[in-house]
Design brief:
CATH superfamily: Glycosidases
CATH architecture: Alpha-Beta Barrel
Number of helices: 14
Distance between the termini: 7 Å
Strand order of the largest sheet: 1-2-3-4-5-7-10-12
Number of domains: 1
Shape: globular
Bound molecules: 5-hydroxymethyl-3,4-dihydroxypiperidine
Helix content: 25-40%
Radius of gyration: 21 Å
């Protein structure tokens, strides 16, 4: 099973999860700093204040990437490093950090993929309404313009948003992510503004960087009914409507999925939104970024408040996140996106797994056979999708480093490189060497 010669193998991270230096060199407070410092929000009271200290150790981390033969690296920019208040005054020290990082990557022959927003909204903008504010699309467009102006001479691949579903629903409905709001209408309002913000950012990037490759990253999952029962099937279709189609349809068709929009309108969840305006989201894209971790099985459950529940088969293999390991879901998902939405290119912008691992590591290699097996199975699924005609152009493993896993703090380890958070020592895991070997061979053995 081989991959195209120009296939872009890489690894991914995000700013708040690895950088640390949360308030250093003029960085403005972000919503995750506020949220993680509020008791009860993150396991063990962990915060991203130090994280992997990548802000200071970026050169060492780039050297690691180079040693692993990575061809590309996906990272995000912390908006409040560039613009501490979200708008207005520029923080040159923050701008310079990413200049140094980008230059180091290019020296190492690693293609930078920049995500403009991976959840660390400036707190100052949250104080003005955050994603529920109708001003968000313009705030985001101005920030995108600044990033394009400062980095566009060297960065050719841009991702507007990471996982808008999580921004909207984990942050504004379930309240388990920053800003910790629990309100269904706020969640759909936030989702609407992510669509508009994405559309505006694409316009701004196109105007300023006509040769750039521009896309967005969605967390997509195959949603399957737990049985043939028509009630399970209907519940699964509804779940798919919010999880997948609520994001894919605006971006590729300029409209919301009519069945879901009708249902939500009837229950008042979309009150106050101009649904037609979502056509702005359908800007021509060069690629779709797909983050894939698992499938979701749904069965109807008349006694639950939503009328359905997520079903995990008792014998299903799972990761430390309790997510089912289901590699064929990646192939199925890629085929579906290709068939129904036909993006000109697709990158897997995240795929990987958390497994329990020791806090400290003896020796210079950590054996993580479960992660090696996970990656191998998912690489195979990707190769199958390519063989079926999917224009898959690259694959970013999540994650380069063990890092701050949001509400789970440092308790879940996704890295192909182990981080000892007491000493900041990096130790390779076997999976890092496996990825290196796949990159070198361009094929799976
Ligand atoms: O760590 C996250 C990442 O920030 C977004 N996608 C899913 C990962 C694992 O939960």
């Amino acid at each position: 099973m081989s991959f195209p010669a120009d296939f872009l193998w890489g690894a991914a991270t995000s700013s708040y999860q690895i950088e640390g230096a949360a308030l250093e060199d003029g960085r403005g407070e972000c919503i995750w700093t506020r949220f993680s410092h509020t008791e009860g929000n993150v396991k063990h009271g962990h915060t991203g204040d130090v994280a992997c200290d990548h802000y200071h150790r970026y050169a060492e981390d780039v050297a690691l990437m180079q040693a692993l033969g990575l061809r590309a690296y996906r990272f995000s920019i912390a908006w409040s490093r560039l613009l501490p208040q979200g708008t207005g005054a520029i923080n040159q020290a923050g701008v310079d950090f990413y200049n140094r990082l980008i230059d180091k990557l290019l020296e190492a022959n690693i293609t930078p993929f920049v995500t403009l927003y991976h959840w660390d909204l400036p707190q100052a903008l949250q104080d003005r309404g955050g994603w529920t504010s109708a001003e968000m699309p313009e705030w985001f467009a101005a920030y995108a313009a600044l990033a394009a102006e400062r980095y566009g001479d060297r960065v050719k691949h841009w991702i507007t948003l990471n996982e808008p579903w999580c921004i909207a629903f984990l942050g504004h409905h379930l309240g388990i992510h920053a800003p910790g709001i629990r309100d269904e209408r706020a969640a759909f309002c936030a989702a609407h503004h992510t669509h508009l913000a994405h559309g505006r950012a694409v316009q701004v990037l196109r105007e300023r960087l006509p040769n750039a490759q521009v896309g967005i990253t969605l967390n997509l999952a195959p949603i399957q009914p737990a049985s043939d029962d028509p009630r399970d099937q209907e519940a699964a279709r509804g779940f798919d409507g919010v999880q997948n189609r609520w994001f894919l349809d605006p971006i590729f068709k300029g409209m919301y999925p009519p069945d879901i929009a009708a249902y939500l309108t009837a229950r008042g969840a979309l009150d106050g939104l101009d649904l037609e305006s979502v056509r702005l989201a359908a800007q021509p894209l060069d690629f779709l970024g797909v983050n894939y971790y698992t499938r979701i099985l749904i069965r109807h459950a008349p006694n639950s408040p939503q009328g359905y529940e997520i079903y995990l088969p008792p014998d299903a293999p799972v990761t430390d996140m309790n997510w089912e390991i289901y590699p064929q879901g990646l192939r199925d998902l890629l085929l579906r996106v290709h068939r129904e939405y036909a993006p000109p290119g697709i990158y897997i912008t995240e795929n990987g797994a958390a497994f329990p691992e020791p806090e400290r590591v003896e020796g210079d290699l950590l054996e993580d056979s479960a992660r090696v097996a996970y990656l191998e199975q998912h690489f195979k699924a990707a190769a199958e999708a390519i063989a079926h005609g999917v224009p898959l152009k690259g694959y970013f493993v999540w994650s380069l480093l063990d890092n701050f896993e949001w509400a789970e703090g440092y308790t879940k380890r996704f890295g192909i490189v182990h981080v000892d958070f007491a000493t900041q020592k990096r130790t390779l895991k076997r999976s890092a060497l496996y990825l290196k070997q796949v990159i070198q061979c361009g094929a799976l053995s």
